[in-house]
Amino acid sequence: MPDLTDVHPAWLPPGAFRAVGARRVLVLGDGLLTGTVREEAGQACARYGGALEQDATGSPDLVLALSTAAPSLPAAREVLAGQGGSAIGEEGYLLARRDGVTVVLADDPAGLLYGLFHVVRLGEEAFAGERPAERHRPAARRRMLDHWDNVDVHPVMGQVERGYSGGSIFWRDGGPRGDLARVRAYARLLAATGVNAITVNNVNVHATEAHLLTDRLGDVAAVADEVRPYGIRVHLSVTFASPMRLGGLPTADPLDERVREWWARTTEQVYATIPDFGGYVVKADSEGQPGPFAYGRSHADGANTLADALAPFGGVVHWRAFVYNHRQDWRDRSTDRARAAHDHFAPLDGRFRDNAILQVKHGPMDFQTREPVSPVIAAMPSTRLAVELQVTQEYTGQQRHVCYLAPMWQEVLGFGPWGAGGRTVADVATGESGDGGGLVAVSNVGDDFYWTGHPLAQANLYAFGRLAWDPRLEPAAVLDEWIDLTFGPAAGGDPGPLRRTLHTMMDGSWRTYERYTAPLGVGFMVRPGHHYGPDVDGYEYTPWGTYHFADRDGVGVDRTRTSGTGFTGQYPQPWSDVYESPGTCPDELLLFFHHVPYGHVLHDGTTVIQHIYDTHFAGVEEVAGSRRLWEQAEPGDPALHARVKELLDEQLRCAEEWRDQVNAYFFRKSGVPDAKGRRIP
Questions:
Q1: Over 80: is that where the pLDDT of 1 sits?
Q2: Which CATH class, in words, describes the domain spanning 491-557+595-680?
Q3: What is the rounded CA–CA span in Å between residue 634 and residue 308?
Q4: 268 partner at 20 to 30 Å CA-CA among 120, 180, 407, 624?
Q5: Nearest CA among 200, 197, 575 for reference residue 364
Q6: What's the pLDDT tens digit per position in 96-114?
Q7: Does position 577 have pLDDT exceeding 90, yes or no?
Q8: Any idea which UniProt keywords this protein has (predicted)?
Q9: Positions marked catalytic
Q10: Mean pLDDT throughout 436-465?
Q11: CATH 3.20.20.80 region(s) of the chain?
Q12: How many CB atoms are located within 10 Å of the residue 131 CB?
């Protein structure tokens, strides 16, 4: 991979390959991705003085071999024999070290590529001592990033919807960017984390984007050519109304035979152009997007029509469950946006095709800083579900604030909808043997030099890929892994002091962000439209269904079965009862499920109003502490240091604004002063 001077190397600086490049390396096997492994190893050896062996007659220090080629080399043969003939598995690899040789074995080239990047992460550790054979396999077959990129610049959302890192790396001003070297570099970064699929356009499919399916398919094929050498399949967001917009049909009714034939014929043409095409992503009957409701059909009817068209080619359709009424009456407290996905989709369980994947946001609302796990995840055991996360920080600081999201994702993935010791969200997403819907996230990448706008926001992209590969990984360990690759020895720096600084700044940053923004799971309180900065009543009287119902007596949304919207009843036991009572509901979700007085006492002994004051003051102090730490940090890159310092200045300013607005609002609503006597404006 050639070095790009106009983009930050992120977690793959040249030095990351020093340990590999200083060795004698042998790559055995055929295939496009094996060729990528050979090319990566060869470039590393050319840089650091090692040698890329041409055959098995030498004495390699590192062997990367397909299992079919392993018998030709004693070290690889011994490792393989120790597995008793069992298959390594799709995309998996074995890593071992014996008799001075580090061995990576895989049944397919993708596994060999992932094995190489594992050795890169280990660095010199991969070549020290003896290492018994370790088997590594991805937990889920699909590990996917959705880009909300527009081909045309949208008059409101711009080139990238909810993009906080500049323009698109694929599109510019109505067409492809042309030079796709950056796309190849992006694919390489993703492969190093384990991501194997991307969607290249916005789920809100506008007029130009619709044509990517037909007469502009060549633009998609060009992207697919760049990412294919790194094991990544391209998917495409399509509009449900494509048969009308592109095919000239008078209807998009999914049960109309003309519509079904159009999708089948069009999909056949897609695969003729892109043989390894992944499939479609559809947002339907949501926020103005067309869908099957217009024809009296169900979402299963809509998804199955596309699934049938994709099935002969091994493709899948990701059908998003983000469906709700966005024209609600705020005075009607019986209507609850949180209920919508479950109400629409749970009755359809078992009616979706095997290659139709229902893509469910991890929470019932919309990527808030804190919300419960979506009950849909537990409600559809006969449907393949993908859990959708948001790497782009729409409601968590928009990549102007440090907010490491992996701890949030770990809580979601480790949550047991049926209680402790039962199956988890990760188990549902990955399936019995990796055949679940997988994990999907909205990408945070743009054409900014640092990829993600805020250099430290790279950690979220890295962590998503690593957790999608193995949801059991500890976020703190993943964070240190990213720090060491990006700023440590691989980048020519000293990992010790900087690792401690960054770990202190980032590991608890999601909870810090929560402290100075919306409290106790109530959500939103952001400025409408762009969603950056505080506006406590910004969405309170709008039709979007995003309310906190604060009045002079209390705050929160009653979602109980007893007196509220009944949302708690969508959960299985024990959570249905846990959430039903303020006495058992976790404090961090109290205002999501209950409308309580300001004097309600939390489990830690503080009142709701005092909690609001305390956390907002504390959150600002924590940001100020991070800013002081960074001023003394030495990342070895003055420009990066300056960018992070500038962004921390903005984070502190914004955190103070959140503190002052939220505290002032609730002081005026409640009339209760801060028990600690601090100034509230």
A1: no
A2: alpha beta
A3: 56
A4: 180
A5: 575
A6: 999 999 999 999 999 999 9
A7: yes
A8: Carbohydrate metabolism, Glycosidase, Hydrolase, Polysaccharide degradation, Xylan degradation
A9: 287, 366, 394
A10: 98
A11: 143-474
A12: 16
Average pLDDT over residues 41-48: 97
Strands 554-555 and 596-597 turn out to be antiparallel
Contact 315, 271 (CB under 8 A): yes
How far apart CA 304 and CA 561 sit, in angstroms, is: 34
First vs last Cα of the chain: how many Å apart? 55
Entry pTM: 0.97
Distance, CA of 601 to CA of 607 (rounded, Å): 4
Ranges of CATH 3.30.379.10 domains, the chain:
14-136
Q: Which of 596, 589, 525 is CA-nearest to residue 555?
A: 596
Q: For residue 75, what pLDDT is reported?
A: 80
The CATH class given to the 14-136 domain equals: alpha beta
Q: Where does CATH 3.90.1330.10 sit in the chain? A: 491-557+595-680
* pLDDT tier at 5, thresholds 50, 70, 90: confident
Supply the Cα-derived Rg of the chain in whole angstroms.
26
The Cα 157–Cα 17 span in angstroms is 39
| Residue 239 token pair | 């509009």
Which amino acid, one-letter code, is at 50?
A: G
Say if strands 171-172 and 175-176 run parallel, antiparallel, or are unpaired. antiparallel
pLDDT band at residue 494 using 50, 70 and 90 as cut-offs? low
Using the structure block, give the residue that is written with the tokens 């049944």: 107
Tell me, what's the pLDDT at 389?
A: 98
Residue 651 to residue 400: CA distance in whole angstroms: 7
